[in-house]
UniProtKB/TrEMBL annotation:
Keywords: DNA-binding, Transcription, Transcription regulation. Residues 9-63 form the HTH lacI-type domain. The keyword DNA-binding applies. The keyword Hydrolase does not apply. Pfam families: LacI (PF00356), Peripla_BP_3 (PF13377). GO terms for molecular function: DNA binding. This is DNA-binding LacI/PurR family transcriptional regulator.
Length: 341
């Protein structure tokens, strides 16, 4: 067969170059296990030599695959790109999906119109599956996505029952307890906590870990905690309020590193030395925050890259019609000691 110089190589061209049937070439390109090693090598070589690129639209009709995965966040755009936690998720998701030769489609949802648009998009057959990072209590997207005939994996622990939803979470409650017991083991007698938003289960779980470690009831919890909203500015405001309310505090568990960094600013402004006067610990071990504060933060490490990769692995099992070994996976966390405690 003589191929025109300006013609785009076809599947038939690949099959002819490889010396196999069109059906065999098609099976190789669609990842079928029902091909011999010799055919796999011959077709792969032919694809490279000819510069063949499959027609994605046609492939989608045959395989019902789009080669794309949606990554959804229910957060405002500035938070996604300015908060290092979310920026890390985006980076790891893009890297992990590329290994599967799948394109990441980033979907940001922050209004009712966004919600409806996202639901239409997921129902429209544009993606093979979705990774959801939608932690807020009143967010309808997890339940809506769960009802769609689409593989979905949730990052964290969703509100409500949603028993059929596959999830990958970090041990937030265990991490909160680990952090607080570390402060108590250092001899701290008055340990307060700067908490995250009350509509996020990760924040509530970390608070529950602190409560369990210090044995605080509801009245004590109200007195010894203040929300910082998972932001640096919020952490500074919360720390200032706790210093006013609990002047003899000597230990602080901040439920993320950004709030801990803000707390450091407030402690310094109040003339408190860290860790000599007040020991401080964060949560996340964010590489852009924890090692670079003064002093560097002791913190609880959650492996965001490991969580995202576990979500991707789970998702592609579901896409292939296989059931993961665990429907709800909880990953361990660990204490990273630096000079703030």
């Amino acid at each position: 067969m003589i191929q025109r110089p300006d013609a785009r190589p076809t599947l038939e061209d690949v099959a002819a170059r490889a010396g196999v049937s069109r059906a065999t070439a098609s099976r190789v390109l669609n990842g079928s296990p029902r091909v011999s090693p010799a055919a796999l090598e011959a077709v792969t070589t032919a694809v490279v030599e000819l510069g063949y690129q499959p027609n994605q639209a046609a492939r989608t009709l045959v395989t019902r695959r789009t080669g794309a995965v949606a990554v959804l966040f229910s957060e405002p755009q500035p938070k996604i790109f300015n908060d290092p936690h979310f920026a890390g998720i985006v980076k790891w998701a893009a890297t992990g999906l590329a290994v599967h030769d799948s394109q990441m489609v980033l979907v940001l949802v922050h209004s009712e119109e966004d919600q409806l648009r996202a639901q239409r998009f997921l129902a429209g057959g544009h993606v093979d599956g979705a990774l959801l990072f939608t932690p807020h209590q009143d967010d309808p997207l997890p339940e809506a996505a769960h009802k769609l005939p689409l593989p979905v994996v949730f990052g964290g622990r969703p509100w409500g029952t949603l028993r059929g939803l596959h999830t990958v979470d970090n041990d937030n409650e265990g991490g909160g307890e680990l952090a607080t017991r570390h402060l108590l083991d250092l001899g701290c007698r008055r340990v307060v906590s700067i908490t995250g938003p009350s509509d996020e289960l990760a924040a509530l779980d970390r608070l529950a870990g602190w409560q369990r470690a210090v044995g605080a009831d509801e009245t004590q919890t109200a007195h010894l905690t203040e929300s910082g909203g998972f932001s640096r500015e919020g952490g500074e405001r919360a720390m200032t309020e706790l210093l006013r309310r609990v002047p003899d505090l000597d230990g602080v568990f901040a439920a993320n590193d950004l709030m801990a960094a803000g707390a450091l600013t407030a402690l310094r402004a109040a003339g408190k030395r860290v860790p000599e006067d007040v020991a401080l610990i964060g949560f996340d071990d964010d590489p852009s925050v924890a090692p670079h504060t003064d002093p560097p933060l002791t913190t609880v490490r959650q492996e965001i890259g490991t969580q995202v990769q576990a979500m991707i692995d789970c998702l592609f099992l579901l896409i292939r019609g296989e059931e993961p070994k665990q429907r709800h996976e909880v990953l361990p966390v660990q204490l990273v000691r630096r000079r703030s405690s």
